[in-house]
Design goal:
The complex is a heterodimer of chains A (about 260) and B (about 170).
Chain A (H helix, E strand, L loop, with lengths): L9 H6 L9 H34 L2 H4 L8 H10 L1 H14 L4 H23 L14 H14 L2 H19 L1 H4 L5 E4 L2 E4 H8 L24 H27 L2 H7 L1
Antiparallel strand pairs in A: 1-2
Chain B lengths: L1 H21 L13 H6 L1 E9 L2 E3 L3 E10 L14 E6 L5 E8 L2 E2 L11 E10 L3 E11 L3 E4 L3 E6 L16
Parallel strand pairs in B: 2-10
Antiparallel strand pairs in B: 1-3, 3-7, 4-8, 5-6, 5-7, 8-9, 8-10
Classes of the chains: A mainly alpha (about 260), B alpha+beta (about 170).
Chain lengths: ~260, ~170
């Protein structure tokens, strides 16, 4: 409990036993800072871990491997699944703190967690090249989502405009990471993308063989006119995902839950 | 009560110690771990050669041999005529696969193998990560999983930093 100390003799204050560990405003502030320093990293790690786990369960291989980032499923499925947690957190942060930062913060934390996960699990432990397993980036799309909420101050409009933009921009914003993997290379006399070439070379033993055949019959090609169509479809579904998970956030962030837990 | 707790802790520590001391080291697993029905009724491997077994980083290891896809393929296993991929069983990309052929034809992506047919394969790999690695030929069957062939240990010496892997871009002329 915070103790309000009246202005007076500091030596008396320091000596006065009050039955509390905290006996001055300065100590109170320090206690709050210590709590922040302890809980914020802990919560960040927990949320980051939850997000990475969610991504592993749902997006999985589309996120892990560069040659899985095809023109159809990756731009469609990934943003839909990545939008869930930010939508939940957005409700809590906007409803209780009026802070339109939840999506951006989560995207940043998620990306950092993913980098650590990919570096340790895929690069150090199993020796895959880092550029082959780089996580997708969606910080920009999250910034747009938060900006739309800041401008419109409405969950309905944020879902409609921000959700659509989130799905739409995801593929485009990752293009700088994916584009180099389009470079044509030769394996024998077969022309392959660099992504498929690395997919053939860097052996994935335990993976099911459909690792190689998302689009049956051909090795995958990126881009072309299919990618924007996938992005638009993803945008439309993202609107629905945003609304559903904002609703879940509204139920899950009720203070009554805390009362029952504590 | 405290004495009982200490006793319990000592017992747990003893079990952990015995487990650590007497647990046999597992070097590899694979074809032996597969259930008998998979081993005996799916892919019959023979004339398997994995050589050389002592290499340096950047050296080539060749896995070659033959297999017959069983005509008595179990009903409960997905069929090899759907999608299969000739793969290599190694603990991660400790080698990079440079080339793969089946019956002399390039085998860079998934294909179909017919039941009752014989196939001859060859996979060339470049050594990448130093260590002693268990290498299997492997066939991944869509919706069934990997079917491992016989394995050999291959020892790679040298430094991973010396590994070189180049790619050729097609020239438009």
């Amino acid at each position: 409990m915070a103790i309000q100390i009246e202005a007076g003799n500091k030596a008396d204050v320091d000596r006065t036993p009050r039955g509390n560990a905290v006996i001055s405003v300065k100590e109170q502030m320090q206690a709050w800072r210590n709590a922040d320093l302890f809980f914020f990293p802990l919560i960040s790690v927990l949320i980051g871990g939850a997000a990475v786990f969610l991504c592993a369960l749902t997006v999985g291989d589309w996120s892990y491997w560069m040659d899985w980032r095809d023109r159809r499923w990756w731009p469609l499925v990934t943003p839909l699944l990545l939008l869930a947690l930010p939508a939940v957190a957005t409700y809590a942060f906007w409803r209780y703190f009026k802070l339109p930062v939840a999506a951006t913060g989560l995207a940043l934390g998620f990306w950092l967690s993913q980098i650590v996960s990919r570096y340790v699990n895929f690069h150090v432990f199993t020796a895959f090249p880092m550029n082959w397993v780089m996580p997708e980036v969606w910080i920009g799309a999250a910034v747009v989502l938060d900006a739309v909420l800041l401008i419109t101050r409405s969950f309905a409009l944020t879902g409609l405009v921000g959700g659509m933009l989130f799905g739409l921009l995801f593929s485009a914003m990752n293009w700088p990471v994916v584009a180099p993997m389009h470079m044509p290379v030769l394996l024998g006399d077969t022309v392959m993308t660099l992504a498929d070439y690395m997919g053939f070379q860097y052996i994935r033993t335990a993976m099911p063989e459909y690792v190689r055949i998302i689009e049956a019959g051909t090795l995958r090609t990126f881009g072309t006119h299919v990618a924007p169509v996938s992005a638009f479809v993803s945008g439309f579904f993202a609107i629905l995902v945003y609304y559903v998970f904002v609703w879940i956030g509204s139920k899950g962030s009720r203070p009554s839950w805390l009362g029952k837990l504590v | 009560m405290e004495r009982e707790n200490h006793r319990l802790v000592r017992q747990v520590l003893l079990v952990v110690l015995m487990w650590a001391l007497f647990m046999p080291v597992v070097f590899a697993h694979g074809e032996i771990a597969q259930m008998a029905g998979i081993r005996m009724r799916t892919v019959h491997w023979f004339d398997t050669k994995i050589e050389p077994t002592q290499v340096k980083v950047n050296d080539i290891v060749t896995v070659r041999g033959k297999f017959m896809v069983s005509g008595h393929w179990p009903d409960y296993v997905a069929k090899p005529e759907e999608w299969v991929f000739l793969n290599i069983g190694v603990p991660g990309p400790v080698f990079v696969r440079m080339d793969a052929t089946v019956n002399g034809m390039p085998q860079y992506q998934s294909t179909a193998f017919k039941r009752g047919e014989f196939y001859e394969y060859e996979v060339k790999m470049k050594a990448r990560v130093p260590g002693e690695w268990h290498v299997h030929p492997l066939i991944n069957v869509w919706e069934a999983g990997p079917i491992s062939g016989p394995a050999r240990f291959v020892q790679i010496t040298g430094s991973k930093d010396d590994f070189v892997n180049t790619a050729t871009s097609p020239r438009l002329e």
